Amino acid sequence: MSERYKKLYHLEHRLYASQAPVLIESGALLLEQHSNAMLCQLCFLNIQDRPIKSLRAQVQMLDAHGEPLGKVVDHRYLDLDLKREEECGRDSAIVLPSDRAASFTVRITQVSFADGEVWADEDAVWTELPRQLLLDQAYEDANERERFLRRFGRDSLYLPLRTEELWFCTCGAVNHNLDKRCHRCRRRRSALLGREAAAPAPELLEETSFLDRKPKLAPLPRRKRGLLLGTCALVLLALLAVLLLPRLKALKPAGREPLPAGAQASGPETPKENAPSDGSPAEDPRAADYAKALALQAEAEADPYGEDFYALCLSAAEAFEALGDYEDSASRALQCREKLVLRNETLLKEDYAAARALLENERYSEARAAFLALGDYEDSAEQAREAAFRKGEALFFFLDGHSVKGVTARLSMEPGQESLVALPRAQLLSLGTSGVEELRACFGEDPVIFIGSEDASRPEQTLEEATAGLLRDLGDYRSSAEMAALLPEMVDRSDEFFTLCALGDLDGARAWLKDYKRPFADRELWLQRLDRYESFCGDWTLLVGDPNVVPSLSELPDKCYEIRCVVILTPEEARLRFLLNEGDEAGPELSADLDELRFSLNVKNLCYLAQINASGSLSVALLRDGANWRAVEYKRP
User: In the predicted model, what is the mean pLDDT of residues 20-31?
Assistant: First the structure.
């Protein structure tokens, strides 16, 4: 916070109203200390798919006792293009009419969408949302945190959270309870919000590796009365069968069977331990656990496509396995495990198809994350690299056809994280609207922000370097390594040519231009200029005339019988430099418009002229008041 602003109050939690299309992310009461103006700064987050065009917010100031202060302040945020997960309000502030405000309440009363529809609710109640914890805050035990990361991915940041209408993914994205998957990272809601999702048993992870990708789920409330009655009926039948079967087996015909020959009658048998006093057989204590396992299995099979099927079936399998060889527990446990494997395979196929759809829709970052979450399923690892390759390939071909001198970039392949491209004004004008749109298209549906090169957040890496880095990270996937190696050669290095021209090294500039393979504006014209001005360069000896003419340029008393000349070229002009002594690097200069072959210099009433004569000699003339005064000619040694 700058010393110019003093924060007096801020909202502790995010605010949400039922069915609202936005969250109130944050809010602060600020005092601008130079003018003592009271400001309210708010931030809103779009949590649905339709772009938002405008917002209407109402702020009620409160005094130190929490009582309303003055009238409600109505403020509109206009000319927005707020897409899902984008924020607004951080760069603007509402000026409040009273400097006695100690806090405030805020609500959104109207939201207008780009498609013309409007959400409005003057009576909406904006309530605080619980705070979503970072994993480091939620798990003090490093082993528990590690198990969470193993199950849900190393890019997990937060502990999943669910409210009445919303759920918050481990990636931090806000989703509605109707969303079965996170709209950003495509993780399943049912997996993240399961009752044992946070801390899976280590032995379970080791014994059944397919469970690593599908956590247990918390049973949800019953959805249909008919389904509930059917499930209960199955459970009651199972319980009756378990309780009555032992008794039916124990029933015998009245009367005592005759004793075998030679057997002696004995007194009454000693009651066995735990045997009922009425003589019926003792009930196995595992019967109740068996009945519970049957109930879990029946509830799971009653809705095999429900979100709680996975958790119920897994619990039933574990319950049957704990019963050992009791009744048919072993076979039932195997049945449950087989159904889990089949369900897991079905879910993996669905996830793979969803990831493929993201890739084909050019949502490269989301597709890559979705494939990585699938681990080694089919060719998911290869498809994750394909998602990054498509973005890198598109940028490669753009760079091959455009000069992007001075453009810097930070490229992202993380879902929800924007790539950043800084365009100098000259380059922006050079590319034009069509060129910028072509560059934007390289990112597909991934978010990208274009800024000016003077922006403080401008990345340092050039667009070519950033693209080469993206491709190098893919190793030898397809042609990524080859393209990464070619990118440095595709960089616009025209500055090197003009540096050589400015140093007077026309031979070096010519060789550079002939070897340069990228497009170069006016290549043939520059080659002609180099050849034309090369005739001035080199050593010259006196042929005829006054040897004091050239030294007089630098007011030297000595006569020059030998001189050396260099031509300096820039995109605007040509300059002829005379080097009068051996070892000189600088000397007097005459200039000419580019492509002119007559150099001149005006000093008071004197004018120096230099040119190549038809005979090939270098002629330098000194004119006074426009009349030829003195002249000298030099020839090649």
Answer: 94
Residue 375 CA to residue 381 CA, distance in Å, equals 7
How far is the C-alpha of 579 from the C-alpha of 38, rounded, in Å? Answer: 69
Give the C-alpha separation, 523 to 521, whole Å. 6
Each residue of 252-284: pLDDT tens digit?
444 444 444 444 444 444 444 445 555 555 667
Structure tokens belonging to residue 619: 């002629």
3-state secondary structure of 230: helix
3-state secondary structure 452-503: ECCCCCCCCCEHHHHHHHHHHCCCCCCCHHHHHHHHHHHCCCHHHHHHHHHC
- What is residue 228's predicted lDDT score, i.e. its pLDDT? 46
- Per-residue confidence at 402, pLDDT binned at 50, 70, 90? confident
What is the C-alpha separation between 108 and 101, in angstroms, rounded?
20
**Number of residues assigned to the chain:** 637
User: 249 φ, ψ to 5°?
Assistant: -65, -30
Of 187-191, 490-494, 573-577, the poorest mean pLDDT is in: 490-494
**371 within 8 A of 355, measured Cβ to Cβ:** yes
pLDDT digits over 428-458, tens only? 887 888 889 999 999 999 999 999 888 878 8
| Two tokens, residue 503 | 């140093």
Beta bridge partners of 448: 419
How many whole angstroms from its chain centre is CA 515? 39
pLDDT for the residue 613: 93
Whether residue 328 is predicted with pLDDT greater than 80 in this model: the reply is: yes
Number of H helices, E strands in the chain: 16, 25
Q: Which domains does the chain have, with CATH numbers?
A: 5-128 (2.60.40), 135-213 (no CATH), 219-242+286-360 (no CATH), 382-490 (no CATH), 494-528 (no CATH), 535-635 (no CATH)
* Strands lying side by side in the sheet with 161-162: 161-162, 166-168, 174-176
Q: How far apart are CA 40 and CA 448, in angstroms?
A: 29
Nearest to residue 442, comparing CAs of 390, 492, 504? 390
The identity of residue 609, as a single letter, is L
Residue with tokens 């991934």: 446
Return all residues near 291 (Cβ < 8 A) that are at least 6 apart. 235, 238, 239, 242
State what percent of residues in the chain have pLDDT above 90.
Answer: 50
Q: Classify strands 419-423 and 448-452 as parallel, antiparallel or unpaired.
A: parallel
